[in-house]
């Protein structure tokens, strides 16, 4: 089932999401729906708060971000991460033009470390740990921020943030174009 996407200005996007347990009602179904919603909206990641659930879950599929055809890791980097924890970040700070389904029409350069080590439970509640770099680390850091109520537009430079303030206010009032189902409150 394709779920509506919560838009900036919605309270759930600003809450610190709660850890989930195995018995969270219909968690497997929610994760399936999140993948379906992400593919339908051409996203590369989607966090549970974006579909109205304030829980620490996100899905990613970095395949469309593959820069090098031989990079089979990125090409097959499809994950559901439950209760993820970024253990450390490493590498140089890299600027990348990010967007977000919850902030339609906006793309801004965001600086993040190139690498992360992350621990999480997969959809079968198996504990996993991965060391990621490049686009995989990028998408995971963006989604992880959603679980703490942080949007990528919070991370742009001070000056740029002032410049986009009105545009963000307009988006939160529903003034934007979209081709997917959205939820404003
Ligand atoms: Ni996002």
End-to-end CA span: 20 Å
CA gyration radius, whole angstroms: 16 Å
Q: What percentage of the residues does DSSP assign to strands (E)?
A: 25-35%
- General form: globular
Largest sheet: 5 strands, antiparallel
Query: How many helices?
Result: 4
What is the structural class? alpha+beta
Spans where pLDDT lies below 50 across 5 or more residues: none
Strand order of the largest sheet: 2-3-4-5-6
pLDDT averaged over residues = 96
Question: How are the elements arranged and paired?
Answer:
Elements: E1 5-6, H1 27-40, E2 45-47, E3 57-61, H2 72-75, E4 78-98, E5 108-121, E6 127-133, H3 134-147, H4 158-172, E7 182-183
Parallel strand pairs: 1-7
Antiparallel strand pairs: 2-3, 3-4, 4-5, 5-6
The structure holds nickel (II) ion.
The site of nickel (II) ion has 5 residues, from helix 3.
Characterization of this structure:
It is built from four helices and seven strands, in the order βαββαβββααβ. The strands form two sheets. A five-stranded antiparallel β-sheet has the order 2-3-4-5-6, with helices on both faces. It is globular, with a radius of gyration of 16 Å. It is 25% helix and 29% strand. The model has no long low-confidence stretch (mean pLDDT 96).
């Amino acid at each position: 089932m394709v779920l509506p996407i919560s838009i900036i200005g919605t309270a759930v996007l600003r809450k610190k999401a709660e850890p989930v347990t195995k018995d969270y009602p219909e968690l497997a179904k929610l994760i399936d729906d999140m993948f379906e919603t992400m593919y339908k909206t051409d996203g590369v990641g989607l966090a549970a708060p974006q579909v109205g659930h304030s829980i620490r879950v996100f899905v990613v599929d970095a395949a469309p971000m593959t820069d090098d055809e031989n990079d089979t890791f990125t090409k097959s980097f499809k994950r559901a991460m439950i209760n993820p924890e970024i253990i450390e970040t490493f590498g140089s700070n890299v600027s990348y033009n990010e967007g977000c389904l919850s902030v339609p029409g906006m793309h801004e350069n965001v600086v993040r470390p190139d690498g992360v080590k992350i621990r999480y439970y997969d959809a079968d509640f198996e504990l996993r740990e991965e060391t990621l770099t490049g686009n995989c680390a990028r998408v995971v850091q963006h989604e992880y921020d959603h679980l703490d109520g942080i949007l990528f537009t919070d991370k742009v430079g001070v000056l740029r943030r002032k410049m986009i303030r009105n545009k963000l206010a307009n988006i939160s009032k529903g003034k934007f174009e979209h081709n997917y189902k959205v939820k404003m409150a």
